[in-house]
Every structure is written in structure tokens, then in C-alpha cells.
Amino acid sequence: MKIINKDLKKGFIELVVENEDDLWIIHTILERGDVVLAKTSREIKLGEKSTRVSMDIALRVEKIEYESFTDRVRIHGIVVEAPEEYGVKGKHHTIAISPGSKLTIWKSRWLEHQLDRLNRSSLVERKIVATILDYDEACISLITEQGVKVIYEIHSHIPGKRDPEGFTTFLNKYLEEVALKTIELTRQHGVKIVIVASPGDLASRIVDLIKNSVDKLIRDYVSTGGCIGLNELMRRDTVKKALFELSIVNAYEILDEFKQYLVKEPCLIAYGIDDVEYAVKNNAVKKLVVSTDLLRNSDDSLRTRVNEILEEAYRRRAEITIVPRDTDVNKEINGFGGIIAILRYPLKRLIE
């Protein structure tokens, strides 16, 4: 996310959406009643003919739609500002926001946790390591928002299968080198997700060698190894989905920690809106995870209550994570009432 201009006294922030994760953030902070200005197009009737015209439109938000792994957020509302010659003011319209879109958001009040999400998204650089290999060569690269940089190209020098013993020795040495370089690159850049792909089962062998040294692994298939295989991988959805996964890795980590406390020290957790709200008000919450389903609930009073909990948690310096729909972690959080917390210290009321 790139923040271009901001004037909180006037209530607006102007920004550019840079990736799919930004779309999810926009989806979580937009609320009914906000005003959004963006370039869009609309069918305009000119005489007996209709034509689609590009224009800047500001609308008052009524509904926001977003689906995981798509490249757009659809914002529905009533037009409040538009070129007068087209006569669209007061009518319903939908603005589609995708990576590259520039928009301005006005709110009557920006909550601190909303500002924090925007600010953090403008600072975070998402990174993935991709290791693509076959029996001849391996290509190990770093994928960032700026593009793809090949860091290592490793040639196997494996002899023919007529020498089974030599073949196995060289293959094992080759795979060990690929695994070590993958781990090395991951640690150097603090990468949480590694994609390993190959034409056959070599990727599975690399996964076995590195699975205890990286946070998350994605196994995929390509028709050829090396940098040609990397180009094939980049044309598919694997990288897009991996980048999306980065937005929920933190939620998975907190959920795992939460479940460990649930078994061993349940006095250090809270779940469900009532208990989490109580813990937040008593300054006991260290980490908080909320599902998008709860945050975007159709009940206005419940949605307002959730936002107030997040705002209070932010003021009390709790770590807040919002998880998107259509993910396993979101479903698990919903099973605990849509909101969970890890506590700094036990609270008597929650123990009783």
C-alpha cells in the first residue's frame, strides 16, 4: 500500500493499492457510510446510443464485496460527486478496486487500529523463496513486490544412470546443496514461505530436507526445472496464493499458541466477544485475532462493538490480527466465537 496524501482533520487518506493483500486491508477498514473517490467507468446514454465513459466518481459506501484470491474489491454505494454533465449524482454505482487503483477514503472518524493497518501495510515487504529443480539444475530465487531475483543457480553434474552408485551419490549431494542454499536464503531475508517445485518427486525430497527449518512450505509441479521452470511457476496462481498466505501466517502462529495454552494454561487465553472485551478493558490482552466474518457482521451494533474492542486493544498496545474469509484459520477462529486473545496475565473472572 502506498499512502500518497493524508489529512485526518479533513478525514481523508489518498492511497494506491499495490497487491492483493492491500485489497483485503481496504475491505476490512471500509465501512458503510464512508465516502470513496476513484476513477471508474459507467454506461452513459447519449441520444439513442449508450457508451461507457471513464470518470472520477465519489460514492457513499453501502456494501463492500471481496473474495479471496480475486484481484478486486467491489464497492457499492450512492454517487455523491461526479461530472454534472452525466447526471449520475444520487444514483447507485459500483467501483471496482484492483492492484494499481488509486483511491481516496473519507471517514467521519478514523480508528487507530484502521490507521495502523494502513501504515503497516505501507511498510511491509512480502518475500517468498522459490526453489525450482530437476535432475540437471536448480534455480533458487527471492520473490518480492519489486520482482524476482535469481540468487543461486546450481548444476547437478550427476553422471548417467549406468553408474547407479555414482548417480545416487551425486544426486544426494546435489539435493543437500539445494536444501542448504534454500535454508540459507530463507534465513538471510527472514522469509516465512518457501515454494518448492519440480517435474517429478525431487521437490518432495527437498521438502523432507528443509521442512524443519522453514515456517511454511508449498509443494508444486513444473514441467522443467531451473530458471525456465521458475518462469512457468510465475505464470500460475501458486505465487499469488503464497503471497496471500503471508497475510495469515501470523494468525496461524497465534492460533497455534492459543491452542497450546488452551490445553496447558487456559488461564492465559480468552475467546468470545464478552470475555475478550473484558480482558481488553482490563489491559490483559497481549495478542488478539478476529475473524473477518465477525468484523463484517450484518448486525450494526455488533460490528460497532467489535470495532470498539479493536480500538481499545490498539490503544493498550495489543497485537491485532484480522484474518480473511475463505481460510481455514478464519473457520477455526469462528469456532471460538470469532475472536480470541492471548493474555499478559490471568484474570480472576475468566478463571472462575
The string of secondary-structure elements, in order, is EEHEEEEEHEEEHEHEHHEHEHHEHEH
Count of individual helical segments? 11
Radius of gyration from the CA trace? 24 Å
Q: Tell me the name of the CATH class of the largest domain.
A: Mainly Beta
Main-sheet strand order equals 1-2-7-3-4-5-6
- Alpha-carbon distance between the two ends: 44 Å
Strand residue content: 25-35%
CATH H-level superfamily title of the largest domain: Pelota, domain A
* Uncertain runs: none
**What is CATH's topology name of the largest domain?**
SH3 type barrels
Broad shape: flat
- Number of strand segments: 16
CATH architectural designation of the largest domain? Roll
Structural class: alpha+beta
Keywords: Cytoplasm, Endonuclease, Hydrolase, Metal-binding, Nuclease
GO molecular function: endonuclease activity; hydrolase activity; metal ion binding
Family: Belongs to the eukaryotic release factor 1 family. Pelota subfamily.
Organism: Staphylothermus marinus
What does it look like?
By secondary structure, the protein is of the alpha+beta class. It has 3 domains: 122 residues, Pelota, domain A (SH3 type barrels), CATH 2.30.30; 109 residues, Nucleotidyltransferase, domain 5 (2-Layer Sandwich), CATH 3.30.420.60; 104 residues, 2-Layer Sandwich (60s Ribosomal Protein L30, Chain: A), CATH 3.30.1330.30. The protein contains 11 helices and 16 strands. The strands form 3 sheets. It has a 7-stranded antiparallel sheet with strand order 1-2-7-3-4-5-6. Strands 10-9-8-11-12 form a 5-stranded mixed sheet, sandwiched between helices. Helix 4 links the parallel strand 11 and strand 12. Helix 3 packs across helix 4 and helix 7 runs parallel beside helix 9. It is flat and about 80 Å long. The model has no long low-confidence stretch (mean pLDDT 89).
